[in-house]
Structure formats: structure tokens, C-alpha cells
Write a structure and sequence with these properties.
Oligomer: single chain
Mean pLDDT: 84
Strand content: under 5%
Shape: globular
Helix content: 55-70%
Order of helices and strands: HHHHHH
Largest sheet: none
Low-confidence stretches: none
Structural class: mainly alpha
Number of helices: 6
């Protein structure tokens, strides 16, 4: 049952990306081009998503102690900004700005077989693999060693 709801959630997400235009890299690049051919429609998509999601989460957390298909809600608890997070966000933003894709819309647009998508997705997957297999570099060389 858990997999069925995961599949349905992914399908709804993908349909939303297509309907909103987020699977079209030209629309994303026009949104990011604030001094050129700026297209503010994506801001309305994001605002609409937040307007629906925020009250939904508030209602969900008030009415349920745990989700239907898991033992607990998986809510981030960290609130610090570490270099790894900032670096990852910067790389994500640069990739989004250059390619017009982030992972969800890129996978949604993959069946269209556009050249940009066919180039972006393999590099995205390689970056995900590298991020998972690159050891953490501690800013403190003595961190984690016994004194």
C-alpha cells in the first residue's frame, strides 16, 4: 500500500510540474532572467504551492501523531548552516540557472528526449552519485579523534 501511495504522489507531482510549466527549461530560465524576458508566472506557481501545503501540514501535524504508512513523521531537526549545505545549495542553484532544470522537472521532461534533458540528466545522476560517495571533509582536522 505504501508503494501505491508513493507512485500516486509521484504521478501527481509530475503532472503538476508539467501543467505549471516547470518541466520547460525555457520557462525556468525566463523566470530567472529578471533583467531580460522575466516571466513571473513561476512565482505564482510557487506561491500557490506554499498556500496549499502550509495549512495542509499544519492540519496534518495537529490531527495525527504519526503518518499512515510509517512510525513517525520525518521532520528536519537541524537548524544550523554548515559549509556542506551551503556548497550543495550553490551547486544546485548554478545548475538550475544554467540548465533550467532541477531534478524533479528534469526526470518529468526526460520522456520528451530534448537534447538539454538528455545532457542534464546523466550529469545530474553522476553528481548525485559523487555526492553520495565523496567522504565528508571536516573543517576541524581534530574533530572525531580521541584526545
Amino acid at each position: 500500500m505504501k508503494q501505491i501511495f508513493a507512485l500516486l504522489s509521484g504521478l501527481i507531482f509530475g503532472i503538476g510540474l508539467i501543467v505549471s510549466g516547470m518541466a520547460n527549461p525555457a520557462k525556468i530560465l525566463n523566470f530567472l532572467d529578471v533583467f531580460g524576458t522575466w516571466d513571473p508566472s513561476l512565482a505564482f506557481v510557487m506561491g500557490g504551492a506554499i498556500a496549499i501545503t502550509a495549512p495542509g501540514f499544519a492540519l496534518l501535524f495537529r490531527s495525527r501523531q504519526k503518518p499512515l504508512f510509517d512510525n513517525s513523521f520525518r521532520v528536519p531537526t537541524r537548524n544550523d548552516l554548515e559549509p556542506k549545505l551551503i556548497t550543495g545549495a550553490a551547486i544546485f542553484g548554478i545548475g538550475w540557472g544554467l540548465g533550467g532544470f532541477c531534478p524533479g522537472p528534469a526526470l518529468t521532461a526526460l520522456p520528451l528526449a530534448a537534447t538539454g534533458t538528455l545532457i542534464f540528466v546523466p550529469f545530474m545522476l553522476a553528481g548525485m552519485w559523487a555526492a553520495r560517495h565523496t567522504p565528508d571533509i571536516s573543517p576541524n582536522p581534530h574533530k572525531g579523534t580521541a584526545s
